[in-house]
Design goal:
Alpha-Beta Plaits; three-stranded antiparallel beta sheet; 2 domains; 9 helices
């Protein structure tokens, strides 16, 4: 009896131990599975974070590259004051970054008949504006939809460079142009005159200088007022610009005196040009308020190298010839002659 009791107790104890051991093992396995899931979840989170960081890094690298490209375009575009050179730089950046097939700069009107007519079909157009200043438009093809934003940014940067170039040219024009006559200022005229003298001397070309003075200009100011005198000078400046070639240089020398440089022109031809100018001025009626004026000019002509070897000497000779023209009755052309000076 005692043996069976002991056996039952032992079996019961073993079963209890087995039960609790199994429960412990199950709990351990459950906790191990939970730990594995936590580790797996952590690992997946690490992978997702790394992927997000990689994507963000690539995005930042792409943004940095875009900024550097914009910087390069801005830097390269500001190296020149030529619209053509700036546009070629812009096209190089387009080709390198977007592989655009073709891009053209249209400077004419944006509406109606204009430069669009010469652009083949299939091209798209992008207006160039900078601070409400319309500069033209770009005609382009070959840009994918996902590249449109980058193209717009590059085009806007080019528009800024184009505006800077045109503003510079306008400032330069104002700096070298006499506001009253539309002719070159004396300072700029003298710079160009000296350049032409050096070029003519180096190449052995003749060069003629005309010194022009408005006859009785003081009387015009005294009788009709300075506004009328200003209008007279403005009209004469317009006549001169129409009478000379593009290579000729016309400048207001001071007061009512105007100079004209005729490159590669000998004295006989310079005298013909001067006579044409004299006749054009004399035949022009100038209307100012209620006054209808006809004015005349006296012109002196001197030529390099026949009359002088240096620019300053040529000015003196032309001025002397003009003085002789005024002394001999005004409204005439006279070429410099050595015996007149003596």
């Amino acid at each position: 009896m005692t043996f069976y009791v002991m056996l039952v107790l032992i079996v019961g104890f073993v079963l209890v131990v087995v039960y609790f051991a199994k429960a412990a093992v199950l709990e351990f396995e459950q906790r191990a599975d939970e730990d594995v899931l936590k580790v797996k979840a952590g690992y997946l989170q690490i992978i997702r974070t790394r992927e997000a960081m990689t994507a963000e890094r690539k995005g930042l690298e792409a943004e940095a590259e875009r900024i550097f490209n914009l910087y390069d375009l801005t830097r390269d575009s500001t190296k020149t004051f030529s619209e053509e050179e700036a546009f070629e730089t812009f096209k190089e950046h387009l080709t390198r970054q977007l592989r655009v097939k073709d891009c053209r700069l249209l400077k004419g009107p944006l509406e109606g008949a204009g430069p669009r007519e010469v652009v083949p079909e299939g091209y798209r157009f992008f207006p160039l504006k900078a601070r409400n200043m319309v500069l033209g438009e770009l005609a382009y093809e070959g840009i994918r939809p996902e590249e449109e934003e980058t193209f717009a940014i590059l085009a806007h940067q080019f528009a800024i460079a184009l505006r800077r170039i045109r503003l510079y040219k306008e400032v330069e024009r104002l700096a070298i142009t006499d506001s009253l006559t539309g002719l070159h200022t004396r300072r700029y005229f003298m710079e160009r005159f000296q350049e032409e003298c050096a070029r003519s001397k180096a190449r052995g070309f003749p060069l003629s200088l005309l010194m022009i003075d408005v006859d009785h200009f003081k009387k015009i100011n005294d009788h009709h007022g300075h506004l009328t005198g200003d209008r007279v000078l403005s009209e004469i400046g317009h006549v001169l610009l129409q009478a000379v070639r593009e290579i000729d240089i016309v400048g207001r020398f001071g007061g009512e005196e105007i100079c004209v440089v005729l490159p590669e022109t000998d004295k006989p031809d310079a005298l013909l040009v001067s006579e044409r100018i004299r006749q054009a001025v004399a035949g022009r009626k100038i209307h100012v308020f209620d006054a209808h004026l006809k004015v005349t000019v006296s012109i002196g002509v001197a030529t390099f190298p026949a009359d002088a070897q240096k620019g300053e000497e040529l000015l003196d000779k032309a001025d002397w010839a003009m003085y002789r023209a005024k002394k001999n009755g005004r409204n005439r052309v006279m070429g410099f002659r050595i015996y007149d000076e003596k």
